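Appendix C: a fully annotated inverse folding record. The material below is reproduced so that readers can follow the format used throughout the book. The structure is listed first as tokens, followed by the designed sequence.
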């Protein structure tokens, strides 16, 4: 593989920036280059589709328009607004980092890389994105979309986890980066990967980098980069209890096995089999309610994925006739479940309840 010459890099850079100026999407976070809103959007966009992020971003900055608003908000409310977006550690880190910004930085996202990296949840990628877009500092960002564009441009085999591949990509980015408009450059390269240089069936005829793309010249641009190694999916079983009382349902903190500890969920338990999961759930409820709870069902079956876990979920129904000691749970109106700080799985289960109710 040969790298681009400086003359080629300059021409490619100019073509990319012209394309971005003409074709960039009017995304809500591009209306402002405030470090705060850039930071919020970059965190939300990690491992999440743009179309999914847009309504969450709009609601989030409407309720928390400043760092101070976010820092003072209860974590519960932050998680409520994040509910359904997934990867909830991001929300917890945002909340913690906002408090750190108020305590140590006067409410301002630092413009120095070393200080930015000290904030909760702010790694190299997020720091580079905020500093380049909000502060116009010459840092290139590297995500999956950028890696794919660069791998095809340079006809480079490999994947990001491989040190040599990453080194060559970073060298190419440093050569191509616009020192005058690093923020626009980074957004242009990411947008190119999102809309034109797609993983499959890239739209090469529309690409502003096609004249310099060695992958296109090879005739097989889809061969670059190599597929990212994926962790083998594991099959799990889970039993979930929907417990009713006075038109309300019970929610507890956490899922099981230490997952989603800050979110509300229907009582649930994992097992090596469906029957083992049910036994574990009944034991869990016995300790929680200090009485034996009779479950009926399963009433519904659904599938849910959490990272590498492919989970078969059986949903059981039950009723609590008398008041139970309130210990780590709460009663929530069925209609209010989806607006609470609940997991995506709890949302799915709530929909099965609503569907069953309408079918009665």
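Designed amino acids, in order:
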């Amino acid at each position: 593989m040969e790298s681009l010459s400086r003359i080629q890099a300059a021409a490619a850079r100019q073509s990319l920036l012209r394309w971005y100026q003409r074709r960039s999407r009017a995304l809500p976070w591009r209306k402002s280059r405030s470090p705060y809103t850039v930071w919020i959007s970059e965190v939300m966009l990690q491992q999440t589709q743009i179309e999914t992020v847009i309504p969450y971003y709009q609601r989030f900055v409407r309720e928390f328009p400043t760092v101070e608003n976010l820092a003072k908000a209860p974590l519960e409310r932050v998680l409520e607004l994040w509910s359904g977006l997934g990867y909830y550690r991001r929300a917890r880190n945002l909340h913690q980092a906002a408090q750190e910004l108020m305590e140590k930085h006067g409410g301002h996202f630092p413009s120095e890389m070393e200080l930015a990296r000290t904030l909760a949840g702010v790694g190299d990628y997020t720091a580079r994105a905020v500093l380049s877009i909000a502060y116009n500092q010459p840092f290139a960002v590297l995500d999956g979309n950028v890696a794919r564009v660069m791998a095809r441009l340079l006809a480079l085999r490999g994947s990001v986890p491989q040190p040599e591949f990453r080194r060559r990509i970073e060298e190419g980015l440093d050569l191509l980066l616009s020192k005058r408009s690093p923020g626009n450059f980074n957004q242009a390269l990411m947008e190119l990967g999102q809309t034109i240089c797609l993983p499959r069936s890239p739209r090469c005829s529309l690409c502003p980098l096609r004249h310099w793309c060695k992958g296109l010249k090879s005739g097989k641009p889809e061969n670059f980069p190599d597929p990212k190694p994926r962790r083998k999916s594991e099959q799990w079983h889970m039993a979930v209890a929907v417990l009713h009382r006075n038109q309300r349902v019970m929610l507890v903190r956490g899922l099981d096995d230490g997952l989603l500890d800050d979110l509300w969920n229907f009582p649930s338990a994992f097992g090596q089999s469906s029957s083992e999961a049910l036994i574990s759930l009944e034991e869990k409820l016995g300790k929680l309610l200090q009485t034996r709870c009779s479950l009926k069902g399963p009433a519904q079956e659904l599938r849910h994925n959490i990272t590498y876990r492919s989970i078969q979920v059986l949903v059981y129904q039950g009723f609590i006739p008398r008041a139970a000691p309130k210990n780590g749970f709460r009663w929530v109106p069925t209609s209010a479940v989806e607006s609470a700080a609940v997991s995506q799985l709890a949302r799915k289960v709530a929909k099965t309840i609503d569907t069953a109710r309408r079918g009665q």
